[in-house]
Amino acid sequence: MLPHDWTGTLGAFGRVALLSITGGAPKVRRGIAALCGLVAGIVVLLVGAGTAWGQPVASEESIRGFLRNEGEPVPGVTITVNDADGAEVGTAETDAEGAWEISVPGPGEYEVVLDTETLPDDVPGVVADTITTTVNPLQDKAVLFRGGEPGGDGGEEGGTPGTPAEGGTDTAQPSQIWQLVASGVRFGLILGLAALGLSLVFGTTGLTNFAHGELVTFGAIVAWWLNNAGLPVLAAAALTVVLGGVFGWAQDVGFWRPLRKRGSGLVALMIISIGVSLLLRYLYLYFFSGQRRSYDQYVIQSAIDFGPFGYAPRDLWIMGIAIVTLALVAVALVRTRVGKATRAVSDNPALASASGIDVDRVVTTVWIVGTALAAMAGVMFGLIQQVDYLLGFRVLLLVFAAVVLGGLGTAWGAMVGALIVGVFVEVSTLIIPSELKYAGVLAVLIIILMVRPQGILGRRERIG
Amino acid sequence: MDWGGITENALRALIGSEAIVFALAAIGLNVHFGYTGLLNFGQAAFLAVAAYGLATTVTTFGLPFWLGILVGFAAVLVLALLLGAPTLRLRADYLAIVTIAASEIVRLTLRSVSLRDTFGGSSGLSGFSADFYSLNPYDGEIGFGPFVFGPRDAWVLTVGWILVIIACLIVWALMRSPWGRVIKAIREDEDAVRSLGKNVYSYKMQSLIIGGMLGALGGFMFALAQAAVQPDLYSPTLTFFAYTILILGGAARVLGPVVGAMIFWCLLQLTAGALEGAVRSGAIPTWLMDTNQVGAVRFMLVGIALLLLLVFRPQGIFGDRKEIALDAR
Question: Residue B91 is nearest to which of A259, A435, A463, comparing CB atoms?
Fold first, then answer.
């Protein structure tokens, strides 16, 4: 359900859940239990269903929720859904935000089982690990796992998903700001990889590629397949980036270049890219299914404390690799022949061609690099969240925002814009409800366009 | 395989409520994109604010139905002004990004938890359509051949197709007026129109408002046909479908979007029915496709159709290639 869920959980340090239902966890009553398991989290199941036409997901109903303990996400807990006959429908592991989702084949009665073996040691357990619930079409429903000692008064089924928004208005702690900035920087750096790819392609061809999000998803899914086939994550990631380059090359040579040769207009190309985006997205759904899945390494790591903020070792590696990659591309653009040729083509393709630059070769190179960068961003997003077929589409508009904010077609602008967008998205949750954080950054995008349409680093030229 | 049933469903989809909703959305888009050359990728937002204007007025605030319709139109007007003011001076690609961003802002706001009391969160609102159905003159089934509908559906279809006809007449009348000629001239060459002393910005804004209002009719029908509004139905996919329909039927033609919508939903229903039937009867082996994957295949086909249309026949069924603003910048 909710195929275009922009409010999806990005950034493992995000403070408030999509539906902040976890406020006011029940107090455990007795003695020592009260000490060690003071307030156990509640698992909230949101059961929903789509209506007939527009739910482009294979199975239209799914069960999902967030696992929290004292407001902290509980990752790595296995949750299984069985159908009425006891056959397993699907299983999921909560991600770094405690979120999980399992698609179910249709309306009906389901049994949701939380594997208490997989609960971390500091989480006291749940009163009942199995809850039976009915999934109706066109209905959202919340089911709660009560925290506490096993054998208590059991699970609870409610008609409304609890109390609204705990987030947004509470007073900000200084450390909270730093933590948000830290996860914003991480998000922004990954976004920068994707944005740089989009910006390079736009600069050289003028194409606003709406299928760029699917190139990001390509990375995440291919890496998952390689990982699932037995490769360690690092090897899978490296191979994925190479395959991303091959995919970019094939796309340009086999598809976009012939279209350019036919003289298709830019608006036509833009709408064609929407067709490509739909095609690729549902190809992923076809082969990957609607489930969220994780890589088998580096998923659960405890954060290293840096004083006001913390990063998991995984995050440090991701950010390091992203910075090195961005720097390498930047240096290549300034220093190397092909980089100079790329900038020349961006400035004026006809003039570049006249001065002996092979424009087609430059554009193909840009497609290779751009798609490889997008694939790398996909693997990184897959590592810090989970992999699903909408992963790239969810961040597409943020990538656009980053690119436009920095100045369409400028490589530096894309990087700066992405960092600003990343930090803004996370820090804005101090003021606005976190489910609106993407809306906030998109609103800022529109305002910036009114004031400075060429973006922060863009040159003043005809935009309007 | 039950070919009779599959064909019957496909024929019913030809005039079904989806065809109506998307025909109206695409008629509005036709004014924007087909006639004015505005690359509006936020049509879903116009449908959304119209539908929610109605639903919120009636369900949340308990006010009369007709006031809800007025509020819906007013909301569309406000949205068009808000959206147009910063964006109509922008180049086509910027306009596309900003409008799609605006439509996501609308959707995220409507589904936000903090506004659940007003807009109903991700499950939306219902219970606003009683007044609409109380006007229903039908009782019992209505129709002939495969086109037999229950009284509620028949009422939705009657009102819907009347609205489609009215919308087509409005577009036809507008586009043969002097105003329509200016609009089409803006699509062809904005600077030439400006040099004739016309206020291009103001004409574009009027076009955005009129197209939005026509889309609003689609929003009302969408809400009333389902007797509910849900935020995630108004996702960018809706806009993309409307574009596919518009280009399939032929942009800058009065009947293009209507024919496009009918064919689009008929074919979508036909492929879904045929694929599902083939999977069930074993004609397509399960290792290749199960019934869950049929949905994905349907949408892949939409993507392929959009792509092939633009590559090989950008004017669609009825359009004139010279009249499509595909080279604009």
Answer: A463
- To the nearest whole Å, the CA of B134 is away from the closest chain A CA by 23
Nearest chain A Cα distance for residue B83, angstroms: 9
pTM to 2 decimal places: 0.77
Amino acid at residue number A302: S
**Residue whose structure tokens are 């659940």:** B116
**What's the angle, vertex CA B42, arms to CA B36 and CA B44, rounded to 5?**
115
**B256-281 and B3-14 helices, crossing angle to 10°:** 160
8 Å CB contact of B123 and A278 = no
Task: Find out whether A392 and A284 touch, Cβ atoms under 8 Å.
Answer: no
* Pick from A56, A262, A462: CB nearest B237: A56
Cα-based distances in Å from A78 to A83, B108, B202: 17, 30, 58
What angle do helix axes A359-384 and A212-228 make, rounded to 10 degrees? 60
* Per-residue model confidence (pLDDT) at position B294: 86
Place of tokens 């889309």: B215
Which is it for the CA torsion B227, B232, B237, B243, positive or negative? positive
Q: Would you tell me which residues 227-266 of chain B have a C-beta closer than 8 angstroms to some C-beta of chain A?
A: 228, 230, 232-233, 235-238, 240, 243-244, 247
Q: CB contact, 8 Å: B95 with chain A?
A: no
DSSP label of B300:
H
Nearest to residue A114, comparing CAs of A150, A149, A141, A78?
A78
Tens digits of residue pLDDT in B39-72: 999 999 999 999 999 999 999 999 999 999 999 9
Inter-CA distances, B322 with A21, A272, B34, B307, Å: 55, 19, 11, 19
What's the rounded Cα separation, in Å, for the pair B122 and A45? 14
Output phi, psi for A64, to 5 deg: -155, 170
d(CA B95, CA B101): 10
- Number of CB pairs < 8 Å for A and B? 209
B108 and A436: CB-CB below 8 Å?
yes
What is the model's pLDDT at position A43? 37
Q: Which amino acid appears at position B317 of this protein?
A: I
Alpha-carbon distance of A56 to B119, in angstroms, equals 23
Q: How far is B84 from chain A (nearest CA, A)?
A: 11
Distance between CA atoms of residues A370 and A144, nearest Å: 44
Burial class (CB in 10 A: 0-12, 13-18, 19+), A459: exposed
Q: What is the pLDDT of residues B136-167, one digit of tens each?
A: 888 888 888 878 888 889 999 999 999 999 99
* Nearest-angstrom CA–CA distance, A145 and A135: 17
Contacts of B190 (CB under 8 A, 6+ apart): B200
Q: Count CB neighbours of A198 within 10 A.
A: 28
Instruction: Report the 10 Å Cβ neighbour count for A181.
Output: 17
- Are A267 and B39 contacting, i.e. CB atoms less than 8 angstroms apart? yes
Among A268, A275, A436, the residue with its CB nearest the CB of B326 is: A268
Q: Do B292 and A59 touch (CB under 8 A)?
A: yes
Long-range contacts of A329-333, Cβ-Cβ distance < 8 Å, separation of 24 or more: A329/A196, A329/A369, A329/A373, A329/A411, A330/A411, A330/A412, A330/A415, A333/A411
Given an 8 Å threshold on Cβ–Cβ distance, is B296 in contact with A445?
A: no
If we measure between CA atoms, which residue out of A216, A232, A231, A389 comes closest to residue A298?
A232
* Phi, psi angles (nearest 5°) of residue A255: -130, -60
Q: Which residues of A touch B261 (CB under 8 A)?
A: none
- The verdict on B206 touching A (C-beta cutoff 8 Å) is no
